[in-house]
Amino acid sequence: MALDKPYKDIPGTTIFDADQSRLGYHLNQFCMSLMKAGNRARFKADERAYLDEWAMTEEQKQAVLARDLNWCIRLGGNIYFLAKIGATDGKSFQQMAGSMTGMSEEEYRNMMVAGGRSVEGNRVIGEDGDAQAHRQPQGRAGRKGSQ
Amino acid sequence: MALDKPYKDIPGTTIFDADQSRLGYHLNQFCMSLMKAGNRARFKADERAYLDEWAMTEEQKQAVLARDLNWCIRLGGNIYFLAKIGATDGKSFQQMAGSMTGMSEEEYRNMMVAGGRSVEGNRVIGEDGDAQAHRQPQGRAGRKGSQ
Amino acid sequence: MATPRHTVSRRAALVAREVNDMARITASVYTSHVPAIGAALDSGKCGEPYWQPVFKGYEPSQAWIRANTPDVIFLVYNDHATAFSLDLIPTFAIGCAAEFQPADEGWGPRPVPVVKGHPELAAHIAQSVIQDDFDLTIVNKMDVDHGLTVPLSLLFGQPAAWPCPVIPFAVNVVQYPVPSGRRCFNLGRAIRKAVAAFDQPLKVQIWGTGGMSHQLQGPRAGLINREFDQAFLDQLIADPAALAQKPHIDYVREAGSEGIELVMWLIARGAMGDESGPGTPRVAHRFYHVPASNTAVGHLILENT
Amino acid sequence: MATPRHTVSRRAALVAREVNDMARITASVYTSHVPAIGAALDSGKCGEPYWQPVFKGYEPSQAWIRANTPDVIFLVYNDHATAFSLDLIPTFAIGCAAEFQPADEGWGPRPVPVVKGHPELAAHIAQSVIQDDFDLTIVNKMDVDHGLTVPLSLLFGQPAAWPCPVIPFAVNVVQYPVPSGRRCFNLGRAIRKAVAAFDQPLKVQIWGTGGMSHQLQGPRAGLINREFDQAFLDQLIADPAALAQKPHIDYVREAGSEGIELVMWLIARGAMGDESGPGTPRVAHRFYHVPASNTAVGHLILENT
Ligand SMILES: [Fe+3]
Ligand SMILES: [Fe+3]
C-alpha cells in the first residue's frame, strides 16, 4: 500500500504534495522567474513567446494565458508560485484568491469583511457548503445559472 | 558554557566547523567560482586581479597566491573548496595533500604505497608521531634542518 | 569528603554568575504575517477604516517591545516560494549570514531596512540542534520575504533600521509533507536548550509567525474559522504539548490549506520551556481580528516569568 | 465470529501478493569513492600496476551486479563542495529529479553517462521519512560529483548508459556538525520502511559510500588505519547498532579527518533491517586495499537473505 493521502476528501482544496509538485515543476519555475523585474517586462511584452521558453505543457501555457488559477492548480501550480503572475499583473492576494471562487472582487471582499467563508458544510466532500463542487461558481456568477 | 569542541586536541588537523566556515566564507566561495572553466581562465590570466574581486582578507589572498594550503586552512579554508585551486593548477588530490606535509611528491607517494601514515603517536597533541608540530616539516625538508 | 563552607559559597556564586552570563529566551511573540499588511503599511494606508482595527491591535505590542527590546530575535517563518523554489526545499533552514535582503516577491522589494543577522548565535544554535538530531539546512545567503518582514513591521513600525539582529528560521509549509506539530514543538525545546548554552548574556525572543485560519486557493478560498483559532490560542497558552499532537489534516480541514502555517507557532512555544521549570508564561497581550485580506489575524505575546 | 476457511486462504493469498507487489531492499553495497579512481578509469590507467589491485578487487562485484542488477539504486554519498557551496548546506538532501548531470569539480566533468533518477520512488521516500521526523531537503536540480559517480563506475565499468535509475542522497560530512552515526543508522531504518511501503515490485539496492580511513589536510595528511577499518567492516556486518554509537571524535582521531565519511555507510546498513526479521545479511563480497591516492579503499556487498 502506498502512503495515505488523507487530504483528498476536502472540497475545493488541492494539497501541494510531491505528486503535484512534479506535475507542476516547470509551471512553478516559470512563475519564480517573474521575481525579476526584467523577466516581468519580457513576459508582459510577449506572454506567449516568454512561455515558450519554458518546458511547460501546452495546457499549462493556456491556463496561464487565461489567468485561470483553478486550472493552473489542477495542472500542478501552487498558489505561492502562481502569485508571481498576479503580482506581475498588479493584483493583490485577495484578488487572486477571490478569482478562484467565481465571485466578483466586491462579493469576495464583502464575504471576508463579514467574517469569511464558514467551515460548516465545507469540511468533507459531499456536504452542502458553498465550496462544494455542485455549488460552483459562487456569487452572482453562480446565481445567474440557477435563476 | 559554550558547546564543546572535543576535536581541538588532534595534531595537524583542523575541523571545519561553523567558526572556521565563517572565517573562510569568502575564501571558500572564491574557490567554488573556479568550478567554471571561464573563471579558471580568468584567474590564471591574472590571479591578483581575480582575487581582488572577492571580499577576502589580504592574508587570504597571499595564502592563495603562495599556494600554501596549510595557511589557507588556518584562515578558514576547507580542503574540498581549496581543491578547486589545485584542480585549476592541474594538481591531483595526492599532490595537494602531500604539499601540506612538507614531503616531496615522491616521498609522500612512497609513504602512501607503504601503507600510509601511522596513527601511532598522532592521536593526541603532545605525543611524538610524525604529524606533531615539533616534527614539521616532514621528509627531506625536515631532515635538512636537523642535520 | 567534607567541603569547606567558603568553597560551597564560591561555587554557588560561580554558578549564579554563569547563569547570568548565558543567553536566555525571555519571551515569545506569535503573529500572522499577511502580505497585505505590509502593503498597507508601505503605502501609508494604515489609517483607513479597513486597516485601523488591525494596527490598533498591535499598539500595545509596540509599547511592550519598546520596553522589552531583545538583544536578538529568533524568527520562525516560512518562505513563500521566494528564496526557495522547487529546485531545493529545506524542511528547516537556519540563516547564519550577517545580513539578509528584503526579497522582491513580484511587486518589487518592500521598502524596509536590511535584516542584520547574528551569525555567532545562529551557528551555535545550528550546531547544538543538529547534534540533537534535527537535520537543519544551514543558509549563508538568503533573501527574506513578507513572512519575516511583516512581523517586524507590526512590532517595530517603520524605523530606519531594525532595532536588533534577527536570526531567520525558515520552515517548509508549502510542499507536503511539512513537519508535524510534534516535530516543531520538540525543535523548540532543542532551540531553548541551545540558547541556554550560549555563553553571552543575551536576551533572546523567539517569534512564531504565519496563520491563523486562511485558505488562498480554489473554490474554498476565504475560509475563516474563529472557533478553531480561539481554541488554538487557548491551548497554545495552556497545554501546548497536547496541541502539538494535532495532525496536519485537522489544520487543513478546519483552518484552511494555508492554516497549516500555525505549526510554526509550536516551535516558538516549545522554546518557552515552562514544563522544565517556570510555570505557564504570562500572557502580555492577545489579539484577534478578521479579516486582513484573506486571513484571520492572530497575535499573542508570552513572557517567561 | 467464525471465518470460513476459504476466506482465510484468500486473505493469505492477497497478503502474499501484496508483499510481492511492493518494493524491497535486496542488498547494500559499501565502497570508498576516491576521485583518483575516477581519473584512473577515465584516462585508461586502470591497467597500471598501481591501480591493478584496486580494480581487481571490484571484478567480483561487477560479476555480482550483472547477475543482480537492481531496478533502482538509492545512493548515499556526500557532495564535496560541488552542488552545495557555503551558501546552503543541507544535512540530508534527497534528489527527486528525473536526471542529474556529472559535475565539473574543477578538472572538467567526468566523461560518464548522465544519471537518471527515479522521481516517483524518491518523492515517496521523502514523504515517508519526513513524516518519520527526518528533516530532509528535497532537491530537484543538482549536479553530482565523484562521490556518486565513482561508485557507479567501480560497479558498472564504463557503459554508454547506467543500467538503472539512481536516487542521489547527499549527506553533509563537510561542515561540522555532521549527523551522528546513530542518526544515520536510524535514517536507514526509516528508508527501509518507506521502500517497503512503495506499491511497485521494485528491487532496490542501497549504497553507502565514502571512507575508509583517510585525511586530506594538514601535517597529518595521509593517515591510514587498517586496524580501525577492518574492525569497522567486522562490526558493520555483525553489530551495526553498536557501531552506530561511535562518536565523531573517534572517526576523526582514528581514521583521519575525512574518515568521518564512514557514517554514511550506517545509513545503508540501517536499511538492511535484519533486526526486524531475517538474520544477518550474507556477505557477498569483501575487499580492502591500501592505497588509492590518499585513501584506504574498502568495499563490501551485503545481501538480504
Ligand atoms: Fe504565510
Ligand atoms: Fe568523499
TrEMBL record, chains A, B:
Main enzyme class: oxidoreductase
Origin: domain of life: Bacteria
InterPro entries listed in its UniProt record: LigA_sf, PCA_LigA, Xdiol_dOase_LigA
Keywords (A to Z) from UniProt: Oxidoreductase
Residue ranges constituting the Extradiol ring-cleavage dioxygenase LigAB LigA subunit domain according to the UniProt record: 27-113
Segments for region (Disordered): 122-147
UniProt name for this protein: Protocatechuate 4,5-dioxygenase alpha chain
EC number: 1.13.11.8
Keyword Oxidoreductase annotated: yes
Transmembrane helix keyword on record: no
Source species taxonomy: Bacteria, Pseudomonadati, Pseudomonadota, Betaproteobacteria, Nitrosomonadales
SUPFAM superfamilies per the UniProt record, alphabetical: LigA subunit of an aromatic-ring-opening dioxygenase LigAB
GO molecular function, one term: protocatechuate 4,5-dioxygenase activity
Automatic annotation (TrEMBL), chains C, D:
Keywords (A to Z) from UniProt: Oxidoreductase
UniProt-listed Enzyme Commission number(s): 1.13.11.8
UniProt domain Extradiol ring-cleavage dioxygenase class III enzyme subunit B: residue ranges: 29-297
GO molecular function, one term: ferrous iron binding
Pfam families linked: LigB
Enzyme class: oxidoreductase
SUPFAM superfamilies in the record: LigB-like
NCBIfam families: PRK13364.1, PRK13365.1, PRK13366.1
Name listed for the protein in its UniProt record: Protocatechuate 4,5-dioxygenase beta chain
